[in-house]
Amino acid sequence: MKLNRTALRTIDILEYVSKHKQGCTLQEIMVDMNLPKSSAFDIVKTLVYKAMLVEDVSSGKLRYKTGVHSFILGSSYVENLDVIQMAKSYLESLAEQLGKTTFIATLEEAEVVYLYKCESKKSVITTANIGSRKSIHCTALGKVLLAFEKDEQQVTHVLDQTDFVALTPYTLTSKQAYLEALKKVREQGYALDIREDALHQMCVAAPIFDHQGSIQAAMSCVGLYEEDVDIRSLSNQVREVAMNISKTLGYRGETMI
Known about the structure:
With 257 residues, the protein is of the alpha+beta class.
């Protein structure tokens, strides 16, 4: 199959800009992506014309940022995902019940990608946004997504791509420690992130399975870290919701509750 080089460059530019919240100059796009100036300029200006990118001069330099049409297309994709449609009411109910924030995420390459977020009116912290990415090693979602992945080659690939950098004193910083954590996740049916990503927060995550018993996504519940939190009760609630979502997707396996 012959691939169109301009189309590939266009997609690469959109992905590159999306990873830079402060925007990118044309020079940065050219240098980092090794593109000729004429090609980069034509593609970027076309993307601006179609509102996929926007021009921003607030910093004194002309920088390009993700445009509203990119968001609309991305939102349309997310809205069409069955798992999101099936899970919305469950996550909204759990978020309000617990006064926390609930998420659905999936694995893309070696990162957790957040697909859906429901923030309770009682939530006191703001966490990840839809479309944002995080490393698998510091998140409960990442542990769940990898622990229940059936493809061992995929697991190995993701671990090889992961930099086990310490974000807090509680972050797992070695592959061996992480593999031990994954074993525990499989045994108990849920994963914890207690101050591993940020010192002020904790998270419980559980797997969402499809009709074939493969992990489709993961859901989580995030709130402020509390020393006296009832982990057993919280994890049971999260797993129950994840299992109910799985059942709506046709899963007929063990409940793990």
